[in-house]
Amino acid sequence: MLALQSLIRPEGQLELSLAEMEQPRLTAPDQVLVRMEAAPLNPSDMALLLGGADLRGAQATRVEGRPAVVAPVPPAALAAQAGRVGQPLAVGNEGAGTVVAAGSAPEAQALLGRKVAMMGGGMYAEYRVVSADQCLALPADASAAEGAAAFVNPLTALGMLETLRREGYTAMALTAAASSLGQMVLRLCEQEGVPLVSIVRRPEQAALLKDLGAKHIVDSSAGGFTEQLVNAFAATGTRLAFDATGGGAMPGQLIQAMEAALLRQQGRAYDRYGSQIHKQVYIYGYLERQPTTLPAGLGMAWGVGGWLVFSFWRDLPPERRAQLQERVAAELTTTFACHYARECSLQELLTPEALRQSVSMATGGKTLLRLAAD
After folding, report:
1. Rounded CA gap, 368 and 356, in Å?
2. Exposure string (b/e) for 263-275, b if CB count within 10 Å is 16 or more?
3. What would you report as the CA-atom Rg of the chain, rounded to the nearest whole angstrom?
4. Which has the closest alpha carbon to 219: 211, 210, 228?
5. pLDDT along the chain (374 residues), means of 10
6. H or E segment and range at residue 257
7. What is the reported pTM?
């Protein structure tokens, strides 16, 4: 079978190629063999796929007679990726396909012949072995394309709301809010009556969300961004934010605006220590690669931490996992629908132009990989 591999060579060159590998075999009773049919290119795949390479210098080549792409990896990125240099790595966090073989366990046998969505890495391949509990059985009328992105974004959106409830918050903010994930979070928050502050970086993204019914939209490129952010946080009571930018000033700006909104709501006299009400920012992505900076004026009760959907999913009790999976399956083409700007095969992806276009992460520009006939 063919599988996409990402390799960083010691001299500072990324190589993306298709490797001929033995078809994986079942090694445990609870495993299934899936003939892969579709997989999305998610932002969460980019770091492993590209390794910090500069795609402006990407060139087409061939490896073992098949299409491949090479691109330079800048010295700083090479140093950051030192632990993987020389190791070909499988790529792809999620995908969907048909179960063509199953172990003897009842949960595996129940999936035989079914279309399933999966999460677990190495999905940009023609076949993949996973355990049954890594699978979501798709509705009978669903295609692999409809189920290809049924894990990462849906579980991230559901996980954010789950975190909100567990930690006692009543509203939340989200950056990069015009993304596929952001639109999903918007639909969920509307359904469940959770006030959402959607933060975007361009006027056209704000217009998109307004058309979708978002009530609190803040454009960081507009004049008066800070004041608008404070106003939105004051109106909604937001003390929790999920930030996709990670680096730079945004995490600090979010906490600072929450603090200003709290002081405005309290209407109390000046206190040199600020508010004593906790404010939390979770970083779930790194669209910005520079160091994260925090300003003064945050009060004395706040936190900045990481949030990863894979860790969230791993720590959930099995019964709660099942409940969330059932919801995703039931709302696959509504709340959790994912739309693609383009589709291509693995071979078609491995050209400089197609690769640059597919990994641009522009709003509404998601790419679906077709791995086999659907």
Report:
1. 14
2. beeeeeeeeeebb
3. 22
4. 228
5. 96 96 95 97 91 95 95 94 95 96 97 95 96 94 95 95 97 96 96 97 96 97 94 97 94 96 74 86 89 90 94 92 93 93 94 91 81 66
6. helix 250-266
7. 0.89
